[in-house]
Amino acid sequence: MNSDAVDLSVMLGKIKLRNPVMPAAGTFGYGEEFGDFLNLKDLGAVVVKGTTLEPRLGNFQNRSVEVAGCCFLTAVGLQNVGVHRFIEDKLPYLRKFGTPVIVNAGCKSIEEFVELVEVLNKAEGVDGIEVNMGCPNVEYGGLFGSNPDTAFTLIKAIRNATDLTIIAKVPSAAADIVAVSKACEKAGADVISPAMNSRGMAIDINTRRSKLGKNLTGGVLGPGMKPIAVKVVWEVAQAVNVPVVGSGGITGAEDALEFIIAGATAIQIGTYNLIDPRVTIKTIEGIRKYLIEKEIRSVNDIIGSMILS
Amino acid sequence: MIEVKSSIVSNIRLTEDCGLITLEAPQIASETKPGQFINVRIREGDDPLLRRPFSVFRCVTLDSGALGVEIVYKVIGRGTQLMTGLRRGDELDLIGPLGRGFKWSRDKKVHILLAGGMGCANLFMLGEEISKGVSEYGLKLHVLLSAETKKKLILKNEFKTFDGEVLVSTDDGTCGYHGFVTEMLRDSIDKGRIPPDCAIYACGPEPMYKALAAICQQYKIPAQISIERHMICGFGACLNCVCKVDKKSVSKYRDVKSSHIQFVPQEEFGYALVCKDGPVFRIDEVIFDE
């Protein structure tokens, strides 16, 4: 089987991805930062930084620290240039590549989400909206994704405001992530993306202060999170009838394939973009190689193909 | 900026807890400017997980004729502990050169390098440049090195090759001036050994910068400082390595629109990215209250 015979393309709502690999929001800037390392044309989609209606300063300094167990803590707090500057300064660059652009939206209220979505509706070149329902590092994080009712109300309001593909990024810290995911599907989300958003803390025993300074806590990210994430994706994928996006600690093709076999239609790589800036490209090549070796024609043939016996 | 695999030429111990690694890295060496850094992946795999940023100490021509870069490290955590075990021939993955380094001009005649501990490694390339202009342009170069104690003092002989004066302070008085390097600076100014009409370039811990800020304000001396932060990507994607900066001062020195500094209308401060807008800042740009 030669490499041309393998079909890596997948559908997420109305978006056709040429392959199932995307960077995760917040680990890929606005794409341009990776221009020296890879061609954005080769990615399944680009997911840009968590975006709000107005620019945000983000959290105090000392935003990150590595912790044992292949993880790090981070507390950026949605620092971003705001949606208007995104459209003016950042989007024109991204449009040159013809790769689908997904904007991660993280707002304080339903009204702000709707207003943001209306701005994005008018901007040419945005294909999808990833609704951040549980950023661990802002005061209102988890507000929308914590229970099925609030999740339903938010997604319904956004659905009424846009025809763009909606990816509901559901926080893993929700009491019942399956129920929240189903509520999002019912409200009209095109895609469900269970996201790792556990919070952690690390203390300097000499100063007895948080290693994240005044931020005290941060989101826990990194390869150490992967087994938890695979299990969550597996559970959610069985419960909903829309595509699921897998993410959490992916370091390469083997990890990505685990998520796909567990039920993910596409995957997002986060932390590892910051360690190996070409990891997305290497992952795409690794998935292609796996399919060739196993003589599988389409990546769609292995989505949710996990054998339970 | 490139990502490249680089062979270790040597890894030597400078003091009990400091080492110097020489790497073959022709392209990075040919592009690095004073004050810039590289982000180093110490080994493959997930432990340690993140890269570690290091100032380029100097660029050298290796015995092989190729260009190399040198970095100085101090053992503080697991990553730097592992670095002590690296040997000739081992490969490191580097991204660099990164960041915005020191700017200097011959308009000022007297130039001061002020180093707190191993911060001196970050100032060497700048010193090399200034040193070359000393006799031709009538410049003066003063290097102020420091350490907690004599045994921890590093790179003094390297700085002594410059066309300038090297002063040393130790916290315990075991070598040179007894006290902090900023106290030695103030003393030198007060005794007329260093004129206030000078430019200072500094690298060291934050308490040193706070003391330096007071001196700079008193004598109206311009200073550039290199800020250290926990850093992840090193190229402006993750927004973790921020430094709190003053809106008014920043606007005096740089084009804010083309920078990575995030301001909001309702606040007089913003967050700059140490990896892109820095690591070198004007001392009066930085707010030291977090």
Note the topology:
The complex is a heterodimer of chains A (309) and B (290).
Chain A (H helix, E strand, L loop, with lengths): L9 E3 L2 E3 L3 E3 L22 E6 L12 E4 L3 E4 L8 H13 L5 E5 L4 H13 L5 E5 L15 H14 L3 E7 L5 H11 L3 E5 L3 E2 L2 E2 L4 E2 L7 E4 L4 H14 L5 E3 L5 H10 L3 E4 L9 H16 L15
Parallel strand pairs in A: 3-16, 4-7, 7-8, 8-9, 9-10, 15-16
Antiparallel strand pairs in A: 1-2, 5-6, 6-14, 11-14, 12-13
Chain B lengths: L1 E14 L2 E7 L1 H6 L5 E5 L10 E4 L2 E4 L5 E8 L3 H6 L7 E8 L11 E6 L8 H14 L2 E8 L8 H4 L5 E6 L6 E2 L2 H10 L8 E5 L2 H14 L3 E4 L15 E5 H7 L8 E2 L5 E5 L6 E3 L8
Parallel strand pairs in B: 8-9, 8-12, 9-10, 10-11, 12-13
Antiparallel strand pairs in B: 1-2, 1-7, 2-6, 3-4, 3-7, 5-6, 13-17, 14-16, 15-16
Helix pairs in contact in B: 5-6
Describe this structure in words.
The complex is a heterodimer of chains A (309) and B (290). Chain A is an alpha/beta fold and 309 residues long. Chain A has helices spanning 83-95, 110-122, 148-161, 177-187, 226-239, 253-262, 279-294, and strands at residues 10-12, 15-17, 21-23, 46-51, 64-67, 71-74, 101-105, 128-132, 165-171, 191-195, 199-200, 203-204, 209-210, 218-221, 245-247, 266-269. In chain A, the strands form 5 sheets. Chain A has a 5-stranded parallel sheet. Chain A has a 4-stranded antiparallel sheet with strand order 5-6-14-11, with no helix packed on it. A 3-stranded parallel sheet of chain A has the order 3-16-15. In chain A, strand 12 and strand 13 (209-210) form a beta hairpin. The two termini of chain A are 29 Å apart. The model of chain A has no long low-confidence stretch (mean pLDDT 94). By secondary structure, chain B is α/β, with parallel strands linked by helices. The longest helix of chain B is centred in the middle third of the chain and has 14 residues, at 124-137. Classes of the chains: A alpha/beta (309), B alpha/beta (290). The A-B interface holds A 26-29, 33-34, 36-37, 49, 54-58, 60-66, 68, 70-72, 74, 76, 79-81, 213-214, 222-224, 251, 271, 273-278 and B 1-3, 41, 46-51, 78-79, 93, 95, 229-233, 235-244, 262-264, 267, 270-271, 290.
